[in-house]
Amino acid sequence: MPPALPRALLLVLVVVAARWLPLWGLVALFGLPLLAYGLLANRTRRHAVAGARVLVTGASSGLGRALAHEAARRGASAVILVARRVERLEAVADEIRGFAPACTPVVLPCDLLDPEAIATTLDAVVEEHGTPDIVVNNAGAGAWEHIEESTAEAARRMVDVPMMAAVHVTRVLAPRMITRRRGHVLCVTSAASVTGLRAAVVYGAARWGVRGLAWNLRADLAGRGIGVTLLNAAEVTDTEYFAEGPGRAGAQSHSRLPMVFQHPAVKAVSYTSAQTAVAAWDAVEGGTFEALVPGYMLWPIDVLNALVPDAVYAVVGLGDPGKR
């Protein structure tokens, strides 16, 4: 059977049903199964943030900083801040001490490109502070580039952080979580993991990798008492990601975002890092597996991508952004 045939048949069924069924029939045929799916699917184990030891990679700025702040606000007993830049981590730690005195911030400088450094650093923090209850794999960066623009070193960094860093952090800490049958892993990816994009070849592939890691972790840790949540977020409006400077994507990368995401109406309803962090922790505490943020923007895309992926691919390819 050709791969597109089931989707084509489903679309025909929708058209026929819309033509011949009354409104209540449409609700019964489509609404009730979708409601049941929404209630029963996309679930994982819940984990309360209050009283938890939370480890956040990439915590020195942007969304990582916001995730650390929100965890502290929700009563985390300790927030372990992981990144390379010690001075930025110290600043985040001072901010947490200022508004959440009951939370202990722990500064943990680490080069997430180095698997041995990750293992050594995490072993030390477990020895001193105990095993984290919640691990947030947030670190990641990289410019939007055409395939011929990516150097070997830049491509390696874009894949190793976020994807391989998340693998190494999780594989070091997961055995301890499995032993006590308690814990949660939150993986952060982006809407670049939904479809193919111009001028985001390696960056997008790495984000697809994080999404795949979360799905496989969910299956692998099922029955072990460990929850897995995937934060799949559109552009976060107040971070330094698209700023100029070392380790930043820069304005050229922003100009290559799909035209649909650059529209002023979309920008107006995009989330800040604080709003995204709230949605992420709501998902962890509510037992949601994949959190699409903002939901009103990404849920329609997710549904359409399941039914007509080539149509989504065509829409995000409209306009000049990313063209050579």
Give a structural overview:
By secondary structure, this protein is an alpha/beta fold. It has 2 domains: 7-39, no CATH class; 42-311, Rossmann fold (3-Layer(aba) Sandwich), CATH 3.40.50.720. The protein is 54% helix and 13% strand. It has helices at residues 5-20, 23-40, 62-73, 86-99, 115-129, 152-180, 201-221, 250-255, 259-262, 264-269, 273-286, 295-307, 309-316; strands at residues 53-57, 78-83, 104-109, 134-137, 183-190, 226-233, 290-293. A 7-stranded parallel β-sheet has the order 3-2-1-4-5-6-7, sandwiched between helices. Strand 1 (53-57), helix 3 and strand 2 (78-83) form a beta-alpha-beta unit. Helix 3 packs across helix 11, helix 5 (115-129) runs parallel beside helix 6 and helix 12 packs across helix 13. The longest helix has 29 residues, at 152-180. The chain is globular and about 65 Å long. The two termini are 36 Å apart. The relative contact order is 0.12.
